[in-house]
Amino acid sequence: MITVLQILFVLVLIIIIILFVFRPKRTENFALPEHYPDLLNDYVKFYANLHEEEKKKFETRVQKFLSGVKITGVQAEVEDLDRVLIGAAAIIPVYFIRDWEYINLREILVYPGNFNMDFDQHGNTRTISGMVGTGALQNVMILTKWELRQGFINSNSHRNTGIHEFIHLIDKMDGTFDGVPEILLERRYVAQWKQLLQETISKMRRGESDIDMYGATSTVECFSVISEYFFEQPDLFAQNHSELNEMLERIFIKKNIPS
Ligand SMILES: [Zn+2]
Hints:
Distance between the termini: 87 Å
Strand content: 5-15%
Strand order of the largest sheet: 1-2-4-3
Radius of gyration: 22 Å
Structural class: alpha/beta
Number of strands: 4
Helix content: 40-55%
Shape: globular
Low-confidence stretches: 23-28, 122-126
Largest sheet: 4 strands, mixed
Bound molecules: zinc ion
């Protein structure tokens, strides 16, 4: 015969199981591999050009960033190199900004190759190499392992998909996704920046620019594409685009440039 005590015991057991299954999952404190400064030196030009003391600061920030974000491979193995490159892509744009945190990022999905808008990795429309999510995918970034690595391996290119997607996150941080990072750009420069973006897009459409044409799609893409170029080829960018360079220095480096 089942006693009240036995029923209570079963109930408590069920409650314990439910609590265990639905317990909040903590992000594991990610330990970077011992050789990760070597990976940074070999693959990340921005890091390799820093002084020793600054390198330590960069490493600490990469470590902190990777400890707070979940990285999940989708039919792709996420290797140490991928983690380190994701960390570098996150820190490069905000390296000069103290106490920066990507509060709008929870998880990064890593796909092996390009995907289409339905996140199907097969089919003929495999054109997207990275994106920041909206709607159900809010606070999620998608990167492809191939493009992430290419951005760092190809040191002569203006392009870096990882940096591109993190610039989108910075742009979105103020609540509007418009190519104007109001969280970093002083209010008095906003109108000038908007005008400069439009002028840049017009120049590109006239074929008078060496900026990747993808940037002519919209002001959002323009901001990300020129920022990739600014961080990947700083000398060439400063030489070819002095006005844009000044504004990006105001945004990312917080240089006090006389107006
Ligand atoms: Zn984009």
